[in-house]
Amino acid sequence: MLKHILVATDFSTRSDRALRRATLLARGASARLTLVHVVDGDRPVDLVRSEVAAAAAILKETARTLGTFDDVAATPAVVTGDAASAILDAADVTGADLIVLGPHRRRLRDVFVGTTAERTIARSPRPVLMAAGVPSAPYASALLALDPAAEPSLAARLRDLDTLGARTVVAMHAFDVPALGVMQRGPAEQAAIDDYLTGRARDAESALKRCVAQSGLGKTARRVVPIHGTTGRTILEAADEAETSLIVVGTSQRTGLARFVVGSVAEDVVSHAERDVLVIPQVSRGAERDIGVGDGSCARKLEGLPVG
């Protein structure tokens, strides 16, 4: 059940999309919001204080406006430090169910360490929604990208989030066809190739059907698609064809440098999506140790905020 949403803003147009989407979700779920702005603390003290004061004033007015016009309770918080770490710390302290942020413009250094959105997603033990689309209404439909073998719990965790209010959910599995290239380049006849693809699709459909049934999502459409290029691009193409307003993908909880390695399916989708993407991390036994994956720097600054 979605009760508490944390939305990060840098006051840019991209962040405005995240704020508006978070507001729509909060209003639909009767959830509360925490509005977080991060100020880079690695600068002269007077400059940091000035920016903190200015940001606090903007967030306070934003929270007042949300309460007056959208009937959404919002608490402002300004913190200092590294953006991704501070966002994760704030989510940890407040016990947010969902983190919402906008896509960040890629800079040269992001080629090596990722944007704030990518770093937050890679390290978060909580679901993260990247609001890339223009938020004008609740989600009409969601494409749930599943790998039945690797992500048996993803659909169930999406159910716990009430599918973010999407009226229609399409469960999609992009399946591998490892022998296709060899068959197409070799002497195989087209009939044999067709039989191979049909068999792979049949197996993928059976696996997806079992996964959806076990998840408890209820009535859900299913679609299986052979991978063309990368899995991430195949998912994006499927979302384009289905005209879904939300893509849902899963990611494993990695540690250390592996969190920043570009190339995972979730990172591929997030980097190229022009619609909203919800990333749900897998939570294995003992995953409680992953909660609090920021650096703890903002915990003291967030004292007094409603938690849980």
UniProtKB/TrEMBL annotation:
Q: What would you give as a GO molecular function for this chain, any one?
A: ATP binding
This protein's record includes keyword ATP-binding: yes
Q: Which UniProt keywords apply?
A: ATP-binding, Nucleotide-binding
Q: List, alphabetically, the InterPro entries matched.
A: Rossmann-like_a/b/a_fold, Universal_stress_UspA, UspA
Instruction: Determine the domain of life of the protein's source.
Output: Bacteria
Every copy of the UspA domain together lies at: 1-130, 179-281
Family membership: Belongs to the universal stress protein A family.
Please state what the protein is called. Universal stress protein
**Which species does the entry assign this protein to?**
Sphingomonas parva
Give the taxonomic lineage as stored in the record: Bacteria, Pseudomonadati, Pseudomonadota, Alphaproteobacteria, Sphingomonadales
